[in-house]
Design a protein that fits this description.
The complex is a heterodimer of chains A (about 150) and B (about 140). Chain A contains three helices and five strands; from the N terminus they run E-H-H-H-E-E-E-E. Chain A has about 150 residues and is of the alpha+beta class. Chain A has a single domain, classed as Thiol Ester Dehydrase, Chain A (Roll), CATH 3.10.129. In chain A, strand 3 and strand 4 form a beta hairpin. Chain B is an alpha+beta fold and about 140 residues long. Chain B has one domain: Thiol Ester Dehydrase, Chain A (Roll), CATH 3.10.129.10. The longest helix of chain B is centred in the N-terminal third of the chain and has 11 residues. Chain B is elongated, with a radius of gyration of 17 Å. The chains are: A alpha+beta (about 150), B alpha+beta (about 140). At the A-B interface, helix 1 and strand 2 of A face helix 2, helix 4, helix 5 and strand 2 of B.
Amino acid sequence: MAHIHPPGFPIERGKIHEFANSLLDDDPLYHDLDAALAAGLPSVVAPPTFSSAAAFFPDPNAQGMSMKGLDLRFLLHGGQELVFERPIFAGDELHSEPGETTSWEKEGRRGGTMKFIRNEMIWRDKAGEIVLRIFNTLIQTAGVVKD
Amino acid sequence: MREKIWNQVKVGDEYSFEMKDVNRSSFVRYAGAGGDFNPIHHDQTFAEKAGLPTVFGMGMYTAGVLGRVPSEWFGPTSIRRYSIKFTSRIWADDTVLCHGRVTKVYEEGGVRHADLELKATNDKQEDLIRAEATVRDWQP
């Protein structure tokens, strides 16, 4: 059976609850709608790295990582930077679009020449306002890297 | 939000917690919640075939755990920026120490901000993640 995916990334209370639980985070603003409303928020908040769950909601753009010309055997995820314009709340419906990609090379000590690729994904809400920018850095090494 | 912390915060302030009992189920629970079902993170047979002694956790799992430092400390709505660098893998049975330190306190656009340096280390004192965050006194 093929996987079917809706467009965009709907932010849901149940998913936020499950995600926060997996990190053993019991902050009521992630779990308790009444606590969130009492704090003046529209709904429960998504934890800082919640957007990583969206990479598996394959909006055709959502991965944001162009794998073209990369050797997947020797590809590392070097890091990620998240820049929030505002918090993400349950009820948000986010869509992503690719931003800029930059790349550079560096001589590595352990795996020969390393190529760094930094991809930007821009996330907007239903009103078209930017909510979040995600920058992923991928590292292409010349061979296997040991820890 | 969190009026008290914003009135007290100063450079050098620290916050940390220890995450004990990280195990295979932690990775599986995160896979279910986050959607990363790469078998290298849950399937022992697959991991052994790849030449590993056992499964290791997702980098974003560790990043999520470390993200509790700024969110517990300054509140879930305070996160302006969270920037992480993966340095080592997390393994089942690791104990993870998550630590944060304030490096700068300032105002921007009339809103109070703080910069933090963050680190997740295992019980062998190896860095798993080095990170930075900017938090701000965000108001709804």
